[in-house]
Amino acid sequence: MKASLIIAVDGPAASGKGTIARALATHFGLPHMDTGLLYRATALNLLEMGGDPDSEFAAARATELSQINATDPELKSETVGGIASRISVYPLVRAALLDRQKQFAAQDGGAVLDGRDIGTVIAPDATVKLFVTARPEVRAQRRFAELKGRGLDVHYPDVLADIVARDERDTGRDAAPLAMAADAVLLDTSDLNPEAAIAAAIAAVEAKAA
Ligand code: CDP
After folding, report:
1. Of ligand 1's atoms, which has the minimum distance to the CA of residue 13?
2. DSSP per-residue string spanning 128-171
């Protein structure tokens, strides 16, 4: 049996971690989980149930997800992302989503997971941990272009303010805050295009896993 390769990719909103994680999964032939989707699906479920995002119990109930339709455009909306960030501070929500992430990380052969707490909580023994970041203005510009590309009427200052608020909430919460693991490799993608960022990530994994 080939050795298990677990790659943890963490970082703030619009840092490029999702693009990098997907490319690493393809390159190394590993399954990939975008853990942000679990929080987004919970947020969408809560909205559809008419639940209150200020209630930890309502949010925890909304983690009972049957099937996540990853192609549902609503999952990627800023409204759902904002509520995902708000409910992800609740320990009950995090606890309810923990097992499926840990099981995914522990599967035979390994896996790539991206999120906020993969290297610190979900897979502290990951073979390689990457912390992908970029300057807030660069991340806001990327998110702005992405939203514009989807035909949405958005304004750059609002997108930047949202990114900054999300960073503060994700890093400031008590439960599994966004943090770089002590043994993670830092990858700043501010001045890298996607191809260069992916190449740097592959090189970092190969160097660590060697
Ligand atoms: O990349 P972006 O911030 O737009 O979204 P995401 O990765 O889909 O995550 C949405 C929200 O879920 C984040 O703002 C985090 O608050 C939360 N999240 C988390 O707490 N832990 C994770 N492992 C993944 C996401």
Report:
1. 3
2. EEEEEE--HHHHHHHHHHHHHHTT----HHHHHHHHHHHHHHHH
Alpha-carbon torsion (22, 25, 26, 27), positive or negative: positive
Mutational test site, ligand 1, from 85, 113, 143, max ligand atoms within 8 Å of CB: 85
Note the pLDDT tens digit of each residue in 60-75.
999 998 788 888 989 9
- Reference 166, options 80, 71, 54, 104; nearest CA is 80
Name the closest-CA residue to atom 4, ligand 1: 13
Residue type, 40: R
Half-sphere exposure of 209 (CA within 13 A, CB side): 21
Q: Which ligand 1 atom is at minimum distance from the Cα of 169? A: 16
* pTM for the predicted model, two decimal places: 0.93
Tell me how long the chain is. Answer: 210
